[in-house]
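We modelled the chain as a single entity of 277 amino acids. Its sequence is:
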Amino acid sequence: MIQLLLAFDLDGTLVRDNASLSEKMIEKLHAYYAKQYVLLFVTGRTRVWAEKLLAPLDCPFVLAPYNGATLISYPAKEVVRSAFLQVKDCGILQPWVDKFGVLVYSAEGDIFYTPSLFSTQMAAHIERRRSLQQESWKKIESLSQLEDTSIASIRFMLLPEQAEHVSSEIECSSMLRAPTMIDAFDDAYRVVQVTAFEASKGQALAAMLKEYPTYVTVGAGNDMNDMDLIRKADFGIAMADAPLALREMSYRICPVSEMALFDCIACIEKQIEEQEW
């Protein structure tokens, strides 16, 4: 019997443009569970957003929001792993906070933001995001106001030409992860999402393998924050519109269509059954 651990990125991979899961997708995911496959959903988005998206699922799964900063088992909503930051860990980020402003996502689900530090252009974009997200947003002036807050992730909202440079600078000068992502609300912008070093999609997959050590792993994603996931999976799948670096390191390239990802997994299942792997 095939034993698969399926790790899906959500936004841009399983769903697009903030859409909901289709009936076909829900049926397919339930079929995977019926085969005793393990379902892991890994996302750079928030726990609140992901829970709403996955609410139609009527089977157990594990969710790793904030790029794997926490690992939560459903339906019990049991937190089985977390790698959060504290303000004392974030002092090195102050130059970028002062220059670009910042969004801070707490472990409790609040979003803190610094409207006084954003450029006029970015402030307008941030306000649009805030109006679209039905989550709790609170204004702050500095990170020091969050001294007693556990931080799931810190986000810098940037233009594409800024993002790679800032990501590289942060990772080279600290023990923090800072992958880039396309902004789900407007692809003209990029997100640099900073988390603890122990927090990544690949680390979430590795944590799951401690419980399922004999399972073959499939990881699917579409952006640079999925690189660690693709690297650690036995079979990495990149969407066809993923960055070149992600596509080059993937086992398969998946066309961008509603059910194409499941077709790719079917090909992998067949390959395993025929003992070609």
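As a brief sanity check on the tokenised model: The radius of gyration is 18 Å. Residues 4-83+199-273 form a domain with the Rossmann fold fold (CATH 3.40.50.1000).
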